[in-house]
Design goal:
This protein is mostly helical and 271 residues long. Helices cover 43% and strands 10% of the residues. The chain has 9 helices and 5 strands; from the N terminus they run βββαααααααβααβ. The strands form 2 sheets. The chain has a 3-stranded antiparallel β-sheet, with helices on one face. A two-stranded antiparallel ribbon has the order 4-5. Strand 2 and strand 3 form a beta hairpin. The protein starts with 6 loop residues before the first strand and ends in a 5-residue tail after the last strand.
Length: 271
Amino acid sequence: MQHENSFSVSRFKNRNGVFSFRVDGYLNGNRIRRNFKTREEAAAEQAALTIKALQLASNLRSVSTSLTEDQVREAEVAFRRIAERGRPLSFYVDFALTNYREPASRKLIAEAVTEFEAAKRHEHKQDLLSKAYLRQLRCELQRLQSHFPTGTVEELTASRLLGYFESGLPARKTFNNRRGVISAFLKYALQRDWVLENPLVKIPAHRLRRSRSGSGFCRPGSRAPQPRFDSGPCFAVKDTTPAAFLLAGASGAEMQNPRIATQPVMLEAEK
């Protein structure tokens, strides 16, 4: 027979003539009968048994612990996350303590971008970078800060960066350009221990189709590919016939007007 988890307090007279207060009820199918000298003690026991019954009904447990309420909630969340993985919580804690290494400093993205741009401007002054590349780099880093207005460099994971690269459905060339700038930025961050690894290892660049050079076909209006001769001794071409100009790699205009090519054409000798 299934009994409801409920409890009542009643006053009764013992055989010795002394009045007591009894807590009576069922807890998880088991009969509970406890006597107390005062009604206050009986009421406290009734409340404790009622709470215990509610905990059993909701699969909760009453445990004495030194953890704070927030720590208990965090532990409950952790256990729910690993419930289907088949390993105890201690396994994941040991793995994190063994393999995880804190960055040297938690660098904000805005601060890291400022330092990186300053370093690249210095390289530009030394004629190591072109002005066009510096402009492209500055625009892309501004876009990065707009996409990630807060957070640190270490929070730029592979999944978050992939979403950034693919935002706006860009062409493959645009995707690669974005990845190239962020790759340089993350290498700079890796050298300064702002990140522990470069997440772009998991995001390869797109392969682009390139036009095949040296083929025998050309589009209408385009210049025909010029043959290259890398072997044979050096010699001067003094013959001005169209065949000689073609052999020397002359353009169509030079073949039509031999006077344009007044200097002899030298072919490279094989090294």
